[in-house]
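Next comes this protein:
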Amino acid sequence: MAIAQALLVIFFLCTAFCDDHGKDAFVYTSSDDFAIEVAETNHFVMFYAPWCGHCKRLAPTWNELAKIYNVEGTDCKIAKVDCTEQTALCGEYGVSSYPTLKFFEMEEEPERYKGKRDLDALKEFVEEKLTQGGEAEDKPEEKPAEKEPEPEAIKGPVVDLTAETFTKHVATGNHFVKFFAPWCGHCKRLAPTWEDLGAAFKDDDSVSIAKVDCTSDRSVCDQFEVRGYPTLLWIKDGQKVEKYQGGRTLEDLKQYGVKMSQAKMENAESTEGKVPDVLRDFEGGVIDLDAETFEEKTANGLFFIKFFAPWCGHCKRLAPIWDELGKKMADKEVSIAKVDCTKHNDLCKKFEVRGYPTLIMVKNGVKMDDYRGGRDINSLSIFAEKFLEIVKEDGAEDDTHDEL
């Protein structure tokens, strides 16, 4: 019995670690096993993800290559690593797109293969690596192999982003991005709807629909503090605007995309022939404050400020009343203003805005009080005038002290 068990153990060890005699590519399921084996013999490794289309197309060719080299007497093992299972191992070797092919030569840094992916080109590469051990011969300089485009950078209705392509892609404009994991059930259910959303906005230059696989591009997901899957973020000019919390039907997502991209379009409209919002206080309107001008414009005086989002229903209902308040208070020493939180999220965070609209009284750039009363013109004007009286009283006290 003991002999039979010993033979069984030897069989499994040979299956795992001995040369695969003409078998398919060896699959590593342990970082420790990988480290031991690549130190013993040359390896040509495909780092892949099971769902990756490019990987699926390469798989039969890779197995054909394995049948050539995974035999006795060769100095190279053809192997592969599933990056959805071995995330730490793939991260250690800087894998950021699929498939990534690397040649591991003993006592040398691994070399990434960037050539063509047909069987002849792969064989030629392996043979070149295996014959480099002798003295170098004088050879004419060869042209570098043609580089294939990174698979994850290819654009479709939904843009596949990686750590290498993300920053450049989202640097300008509006982007609705899905951060996901391929094993996540909710992500799988959302996937076809997300593709339909991409198709719906395919010809719309105001927004791109994109996705990031957090199992292969963890650094991007960490940057945006992704803690669950799927996470849907609206990103503008490289900065997170907000996390989408609505329904996940195609219609819900389309409406959100339209609202957020329209906010961008409104911001981009030409102001030719119009009085800029920041000057409307001179004509009895509402001052449109932004992150760049806020401190300077609110440094002196009293400001009653509406923090809002263009898509918010309560904000839309309040808008004409707020404009009326601006006109009513035009001859008073209190300015009526507004801040669009979809454009100036950091500014809204500074004032701890948690919902829309939020109405705050600010004096000399500093928050005095939140308004929680009625949203009719009478209630709002009474609140503003009350603080105006407080400011005047404070001013009178300051004058008295100055005289002393």
In short: The mean pLDDT is 78. DSSP finds 13 helices and 15 strands in the chain. The first helix runs from residue 2 to 17. Residues 157 and 202 are 5 Å apart (CA to CA).
